[in-house]
Amino acid sequence: MVNVHVYITLKEGVLDPQGHAVQNSLTALGYEEVEKVNVGKWLRLEVADGNNLDSRVENMCEQLLANPVIENYTYHVEREAKV
Amino acid sequence: MVNVHVYITLKEGVLDPQGHAVQNSLTALGYEEVEKVNVGKWLRLEVADGNNLDSRVENMCEQLLANPVIENYTYHVEREAKV
Amino acid sequence: MSLQLEPTAEEIHAERLYADIGVKDHEYERIVQLMGRKPNYTEIGLFSVLWSEHCSYKHSKPLLKQFPSTAPHVLQGPGEGAGVVDIGDGQAVVFKVESHNHPSAVEPYQGAATGVGGILRDVFSMGARPIALLNSLRFGPLTTPRMRYLFEEVVAGISGYGNCVGVPTVGGEIQFDDTYDGNPLVNAMCIGLIDQNDLQKGIAAGVGNTVMYVGAATGRDGIHGATFASEELNEDSADKRPSVQVGDPFTEKRVLEACLEVAKSDALVGIQDMGAAGLTSSAAEMASKAGTGIAMNLDLVPQRETGMTPYEMMLSESQERMLLVVEKGKETEIEVICEKWDLETAAIGTVKEDMRLTLTFHGDVVADVPVTALTDEAPVYDVPSEEPADFREHQQRPVWQPQSSDYNETLLQLLSQPTIANKEWVYDQYDHMVQTNTVVMPGSDAAVLRIRGTEKALATSMDGNSRYIALDPKEGGKIAIAEAARNIICSGAQPLALTDCLNYGSPEEPSIYWQMEQSTAGMSEACRTFDTPVVSGNVSLYNETNGEAIYPTPVVGMVGLVEQLDHVTTQPFKQAGDVIYIIGEAEPAWGGSELQLVEDGKISGQVPTMDLELEQARQQQVLAAIRAGLVQSAHDIAEGGLAVALAECVMGTELGADVSMKDDVAELFAETQSRYVISVAVEDAEAFEQAIPAARCYGTVTDEKVLRMKTTEGQKLIEQPTDELHHVWKGAIPCFLKSKA
Amino acid sequence: MKAAVIVFPGSNCDTDMSYALSDFTDAETVDLVPYTAESVAEYDAIFLPGGFSYGDYLRSGAIARFAPVMQSVIAEAEQGKTVLGICNGFQILLEAGLLPGAMKRNKDLKYICRTVDVKVENADTRFSGEYEKGETLRIPIAHGEGNYECDGQTYETLKKNNRIVFTYEADVNGSTGQIAGITNEAGNVLGMMPHPERAMETLLGSEDGRRLFTSVYRHWRDTHVVTT
Ligand SMILES: Nc1ncnc2c1ncn2[C@@H]1O[C@H](COP(=O)(O)OP(=O)(O)O)[C@@H](O)[C@H]1O
Ligand SMILES: [Mg+2]
Questions:
Q1: CATH of domain B2-78
Q2: What is the number of other CB atoms lying within 10 angstroms of the CB of residue C17?
Q3: Which of B17, B18, B29 is closest, CB to CB, to D66?
Q4: What's the rounded Cα separation, in Å, for the pair C611 and C393?
Q5: Which of C81, C299, C597, D189 could form a disulfide with D83 if both were Cys (CB 3.0 to 4.6 A apart)?
Q6: What Gene3D superfamilies does this protein's entry cite (chain D) (predicted)?
């Protein structure tokens, strides 16, 4: 069993209303050092290890997890099973 | 300028209806090797480097970014500014 | 925690571990007596939730008994998931209100969302399709970031859940007051519609029948939620966080559709939702109502987490679950329906003759308790009550006099009070149109929903001004009912019945118990006068923070029937030239008024009096005039008095008003009861005056967008452009939310 | 005309849509078709209703796009059959790639339910034939993710080919070009966020939505009933 972490954000150039709102709130709370915020998704998948893990994960992302029209994704595989 | 990545998930044991729906959908699409899915948030903050970065990020998480009642957070600081 | 680590019956006794889960010493002794032995950990857990205030009403039962609950049109009073009222044509309306105050204080989004989920299940478990949601909210002033956060998240939670399930949120009410600073209130009400033949009950009848579990799997969420709801909030509350449940409206929607299908199946014997105290209360109550027992094998309960103990399973408050009793041999009928909606089901037990709740786990009997010990034998307390000193004091104060002299300024100030201000910021986030029956949307006195296929409609409103009740619980209790009824009348409907949510501090405090007694007595009296029985309700006690109780806050949710769609009436003025009538004389009683609060920052003195006979007579006159087609618009005079009521009649229209009156601050701003602003077309004026002799002509609706109020001598009292009034009124809440301080 | 209203798990405007069709058009059949159906080939027009299919978890419409019935819906759409997605239905059509672009959360991050002014930009489609170009309609919106996003080139193409059928008269949710509804290139698939099925009766506030459904019906009649 491996943990696959998938990270999804809006593409560069796509306006991120959520990121914008979070940044404004942070500024209001006095965290003026924060200059930009993007809000994306983090999915953790517990996957039975096997052949083609990478290509299968990529397919999952393209097909379902991310919307390629506006989103980019990256992922990494955590091989040591979590305790 | 550094990039701070904040990762937020629901606490262990808290119902994750989104994760559940995504997993079901992956199974229906033939990705039967996926045994569990959790959906969380990933925030990328561009922050002016400075003193107390860590404690300030922790405060941001506790105060605003995560909901400590049902969520856990972790973060890491990416020191090399992104190109 | 694994089973082996659970304390033994002896340890529970010796170390008074029962106290940690809210069981008092004498209650523990009574439990031992009823069982004939010391309860084990699972068993004491069952008692702790079923004997909590939330499930047993141990401090409030005697008060609830005073409410009238029967009438020829009442098909089901208190005691089932929700009350049921006949509306003719073989149809009935099903409704109830429920509180989710404590969970919402700790996790506002999920607390409010699961409150909506719970009340929906109460209604559809009766076999009724939910057609409307309402909510009654109380917050502290929006001047702190914490309160703005609570407010925004509660609204988001209600919207997130109700919108997804597809039940329109058509109304509600919100008040802001310091008294709720540490303990906000979130009460949700649901209305359902049903063919009377389809009515279901929560009973476990028929020995040998199968007990089935339907819906979401059980996790550890909300364990001890029911007892949590019966304890005061204090600084430790944060530690109880795991007891917050997360809602899944998508599952709820499927459970809803499945249950409505199941309700049509003759395989179904009884059905109840697993609300507070989950599996424990649903099983015990269904058995109790049928005079039977239930044996369940907990290994068969669908589980979301591993290693759950019987204690955890029985006390879990995981959402979106139902318990069904199904005729033996017909389980597959239910399974087929649930499969269609992609829901988990499991046959987990059997109805027994022995009147015991028997639980097995891994082959062992882990609990074996007489059902009646859990339900009927739950304690009922005769609580000492004592009139608080400040009550007399308020009664004996000299009459309070407003200082206001710049009436224009006063009106604008009143309109920008969050309690009076426009609530569009809130209800724009609620889908109030889905199901396409909403004739009158949020924003008028009552919401109106047409009943498809008929010429009838339902009107509904939630009300309860706790400031009056704080000063004078009995009069305040009457006013709460009267105000709800008046709102229903103004929309063109006859009030039918109501549901109530009693939000108070600790009943163990004699002065608070006195408030409970007085206010419910006032409410009961009003209900009798208007013939609006109480058909369901909920009690939420221990609404205190660090020993400071909220104002006594009974909230009323009323439902009325519009006989003909063309009777539907709303509050805005309709047409220039219409005659403006006021019914009722203003009196200088200011206790608890909005103006007093604005001027003094606190409330004091005597509240407006409530003459129930007069109120009833006027209501019927107004309704008769509406039915006779004589009324263009109707609005009751409430918080902020006549000036605010008139402003509300012009706002959002292209119209204005010209009225003249006595030069008297009470005329402008007093909250005297049983008063209305009604506009009438010129050609109907004579007939209207005959129908309601007490109505006095104050002026006319104009096509100049200005509200003008002057003395009979022509001296200006108030002159404000409609748009300016609207701007102030509409901007107030968004303005608070934008402030960063 | 035989109309199918698809019911996904979590759809909640399905019955409203079917009332709109059966009470206000002359459609012979209006069926609520479950998401498990294998084929919708027998229908003349396919309607994807509003709601929260699969809870709208992950992204609105993302999971529904793979519901069993969608294969047939996509096939029929590609063959030129009338397909109309409203609100969640629009989101599903975007996720399915039948229409270009994607939905983001509303610019102020709040769900909005309100009747708004919608402008008819193109009255020459099978969905809008009974409207006048430039006409303003009062139609409710009710969505949290209606902020339509597409790249500049797509937007230009939509504009140039008159595929923008409806726009909002005010910027209600942040949508690119205030877009409220678009068609595919062939003009047989329309997605729109506003809810015409909620604007069928003056009793409920507006009847400006009626002509959308009667347009669809008339188009079908004009193209099918000529010979009889
Ligand atoms: N304030 C009240 N007035 C009238 N009936 C009430 C009141 N509070 C509770 N009831 C009735 O008592 C019964 C049990 O209520 P409750 O325990 O809240 O139901 P549930 O188990 O569905 O949460 C219900 O029928 C309810 O209508
Ligand atoms: Mg219940």
A1: 3.30.1280.10
A2: 17
A3: B29
A4: 23
A5: D189
A6: 3.40.50.880
With 90 as the cut, is the pLDDT of residue B81 above it?
no
**Domains along chain C?**
1-66+201-378 (3.90.650.10), 571-741 (3.90.650.10)
Average the pLDDT over B55-63 and give the result.
92
**pLDDT tens-digit profile of D161-183?**
999 999 999 999 999 999 999 99
**Residue C537 contacts residue C96 (beta carbons within 8 Å):** yes
Q: Ligand nearest C280 Cα, by number?
A: 1
> Closest to D58 (Cβ–Cβ): which among B22, B28, B29?
B22
What span, in angstroms and rounded, lies between the C-alpha atoms of C600 and C35?
Answer: 57
Q: Which helix (H) or strand (E) holds A35?
A: strand A34-47
- Rounded to the nearest angstrom, the distance between the alpha carbon of C274 and the centre of ligand 1 is 14
* CA–CA distance, D174 with D169 (Å, rounded to integer): 12
Neighbours of chain B (3+ CB pairs under 8 A): A, C, D
Q: C317 a known binding residue?
A: yes
pTM to 2 decimals? 0.94
Phi-psi region of C141 (alpha: psi -120 to 50; beta: other; left: phi over 0): beta
Contact assignment for D55 to B29 by CB distance below 8 Å: no
Mean pLDDT of the D110-115 span: 97
pLDDT in tens, C611-634: 999 999 999 999 999 999 999 999
For C332, phi then psi, to 5°, come to -65, -30
The B residues from 1 to 40 touching A (CB cutoff 8 Å) are 1, 7-9, 19, 22, 25-26, 29, 31, 33-40
Residue extents of the structural domains in chain A: 2-78
The answer to whether C465 touches C476, Cβ cutoff 8 Å, is: yes
Rounded average pLDDT over C537-544: 95
Distance C162 CA to ligand 1 centre (A): 22
Cα distance between residue C733 and residue C720, in whole Å: 21
What's the pLDDT at D37? 97
**Best residue for ligand 1 mutational test, from C279, C538, C553, C555 (most atoms within 8 Å of Cβ):** C538
Q: Which amino acid is it at C144?
A: T
Contact (CB<8Å) D10/C341: no
Domains parsed from chain D with CATH numbers: 2-223 (3.40.50.880)
Q: Which atom of ligand 1 is nearest to the CA of C55?
A: 17
**Burial level of D129, CB count in 10 A (0-12/13-18/19+)?**
middle
From the CB of C80, is ligand 1 less than 6 Å away? Answer: yes
Q: Measure D76 CA to nearest chain C CA, in Å.
A: 25
